[in-house]
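User: Please predict the structure of the protein below. I'd like the answer in structure-token form so I can feed it into my own downstream comparison script.

Assistant: Understood. Taking the following sequence of 111 residues as input:
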Amino acid sequence: MEETNTKMNRSVLQILSVVPITGILGFDRFYIGQPGLGFLKLITVGGAGFWYMIDAVIQTIEGLFGNATTLMNQGVRFTDHSISSGRVVSILIIVVVLSTSFAVRATTRRG
């Protein structure tokens, strides 16, 4: 993908990647201008969930470190404001995942 002057919102991309229904159906790939990969992700249901999970992890980690470009989205540029808000979204994602996993583990131990 060629680099364009259009800058995208990192937070929107992260949310599209992490929310199961949009991530599995490839909305994140359509958003960044990769309709072929988006369609492939759609018809494979996120690569049976594996492709979805890999994209979600990559977007969370890259958002946390505030990269202007990403491994997943070569040539995509993000607005400065969305890079800083992307850090906040990444932290929230990590907190939700960790708290959910601890809650599930505590519930499983009791039962």
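That's the full token string. The mean pLDDT is 81.
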